[in-house]
Design brief:
The chain is built from 14 helices and seven strands. By secondary structure, the chain is of the alpha+beta class.
């Protein structure tokens, strides 16, 4: 049967041609796979109302609940040896690995109900505002070897954006950063805890995480503080320079440390934060500054209690 006769989705013929050329995969099998994918209106609706549209005071309440913090503490204590082994291997503080999966999927309890293939077909072939990005992710998904996926492509589930596993990796992140931490010859971000934790740690490490480096610290502006225009989380001034402009740190910081200054709308007014390279690394996972701050504060809440509990256990 001619290739075009299979095409049901817009651009399917061209996509299949590209994947077949790049990988040698059978066009008929690729078309059969895509024919089984459905355009989902609920996915198009979901992408139009992201949580990042909320102010920080509301956004924070979603991710810094007592239940999420308590679950993170239990998760850390239950898997402490593995977490600290992986943290040491990749140079990433374990509490941030835990916080990522806590924010993304409530420690693996909510990895998403959408078929990954439906999500990427819907957004890559039916959503013009971001079609270029999602079409590339769809192509990458179709090109991934079976050993880098938790199961057959048409069985995978995830977020409305097509992210999968406890850490919600997009296909390109699976390709570039996921690791076979348990050494069984397969990368499984749904069922292998070593693969899940190791992949998040490797993602951070490959994006420049600074071992034992700061993430964020509160700043107190004076009445004459210089107004700053900040477009992202990239460090662009030293702490010393920000101090000279009227922003005082509320804890000791290295005056020469490269930093940025973020302003978030809290419940009682603006909050000002020095942020550092590791904060910027978190924003590569999700561009939202609020997301990065939620991860940071969840990580801090978890490790504070873990350390306190360990101190009590060691006390005579």
């Amino acid at each position: 049967m001619p290739l075009a006769a299979w095409a049901e989705h817009p651009g399917q013929t061209q996509l299949v041609s590209e994947v077949a050329k790049d990988t040698g995969k059978d066009p008929g099998a690729l078309n059969a796979l895509l024919d089984g994918a459905k355009r989902q209106q609920s996915i198009l609706d979901a992408i139009s109302r992201p949580a990042e549209a909320k102010p920080w005071s509301e956004y924070r309440q979603i991710f810094l609940t007592p239940a999420r913090v308590d679950a993170g503490i239990r998760f850390y204590r239950d898997h402490q040896a593995l977490l600290e082994q992986i943290g040491k291997k990749y140079g990433v503080a374990p509490q941030y690995i835990v916080a990522i999966i806590g924010v993304e999927t409530l420690y693996g309890h909510n990895t998403g109900r959408y078929k990954v293939l439906d999500a990427l077909v819907t957004l890559g072939l039916y959503y013009p505002p971001r079609a270029a990005f999602f079409r590339q992710e769809l192509k990458t998904l179709l090109e991934l070897p079976d050993t880098q996926l938790a199961g057959p492509i048409d069985t995978l589930t995830g977020s409305y954006a097509g992210a999968q596993g406890w850490g919600q990796f997009m296909p390109s992140s699976i390709r570039d950063f996921a690791v076979d931490e348990d050494g069984d010859g397969r990368i499984d971000l749904q069922n292998s805890l070593p693969d899940i934790l190791g992949s998040v740690a490797n993602y951070f490490a490959k994006h420049g995480w600074v071992t034992d480096g700061p993430v964020a610290a509160r700043a107190q502006p004076d009445a004459m503080a210089k107004a700053l225009s900040v477009k992202d989380a990239s460090p662009q001034w030293t702490v010393e320079q920000l101090e000279a402009w009227g922003y005082a740190p509320l804890q000791h910081l290295d005056p020469g440390a490269p930093s940025s200054l973020q302003t978030l709308q809290g419940t009682t007014g603006p909050e000002y934060w020095f942020t550092f390279k590791n904060f910027q690394v978190i924003t590569t996972y999700n561009r939202s500054v609020m997301y990065a701050m939620a991860v940071n504060q969840l990580a801090q809440a978890i490790i504070e209690v873990v350390h306190a509990q360990q101190g009590q256990e060691r006390a005579p």
